[in-house]
Design goal:
This protein is mostly helical. It contains four helices and no strands.
């Protein structure tokens, strides 16, 4: 079983709703990107995209860091298999990018 990205979250008890939302997003992203059940993967990815669509504006920076964490991972056992994870992270980043302010430097 793969290591969950929730390890990127702060080492504190998740008490406020923003932290819970980020934890939920990380969990669902992991289910989508590291599927244990291929039949469920599409629904898990749809749920992750729905969370990003609904909360990406208010949680842009934490979600950006979360998804970039998938891209930054260098030490992987199966590089070809992990490319699929990176592809999925890019899809989530594209969904998140819809929430960027047009004047943001990341747009250019």
């Amino acid at each position: 079983m793969q290591t969950l990205q929730t390890s990127l979250l702060p080492d504190k008890h998740l008490q406020d709703s923003a932290d819970c939302l980020l934890c939920d997003t990380a969990y669902i992203a992991d289910l989508c990107l590291y599927p244990q059940c291929l039949q469920c993967q599409e629904q898990e990815c749809d749920a992750g995209a729905a969370l990003v669509n609904a909360h990406g504006k208010s949680q842009f920076q934490p979600m950006l860091q979360l998804f970039e964490g998938y891209l930054d991972k260098k030490d992987v056992a199966d590089e070809a298999r992990y490319d699929k994870v990176r592809e999925g992270a890019i899809v989530f980043l594209g969904t998140l990018a819809r929430h960027l302010d047009p004047s943001d430097s990341k747009v250019n």
